[in-house]
Amino acid sequence: xxxxxxxxxxxxxxxxxxxxxxxxxxxxxxxxxxxxxxxxxxxxxxxxxxxxxxxxxxxxxxxxxxxxxxxxxxxxxxxxxxxxxxxxxxxxxxxxxxxxxxxxxxxxxxxxxxxxxxxxxxxxxxxxxxxxxxxxxxxxxxxxxxxxxxxxxxxxxxxxxxxxxxxxxxxxxxxxxxxxxxxx
Length: 184
Description:
Blueprint: H1 2-44, E1 51-52, E2 57-59, E3 65-67, E4 76-81, H2 86-99, E5 103-109, H3 114-124, E6 129-133, H4 137-141, E7 149-153, E8 158-164, H5 169-183
Parallel strand pairs: 4-5, 5-6
Antiparallel strand pairs: 1-8, 2-3, 4-7, 7-8
């Protein structure tokens, strides 16, 4: 009987050890993913501008003049994206939601003609102001290496945050909200 209890205890310890090893394995994978993500952010943002946001004066996809200077006084999300970017497609609803509460200006990078960008926006149900950047001139001015890339610009035109790749709506909303609090 004592032998049976001992073997049950050994089996339980072995099972416990197996679970611990599995948890540690997943923790290492998670750590590797986090480090790789952060290194990817650093690499994508290596050339992005800091300080004052470069001026933008252009026509939006509806042919209306737009200037980044017109957004001063309140924080703005400057969102660089592309029609061919699957992450951008996923984020459209988030950006549209943010545009209901905050100033948002989108820049469509190398996404075809303005009419193509407009069709894409309608198909995706995306509703925010967009400038077409078919040749990547505006994107180059901001040092964009990949899309999506978001710049959070404060009420005086200073870039306060740069985010590349997938970003949660909560993260963007929080950053804009904080700047609104600072402005008041």
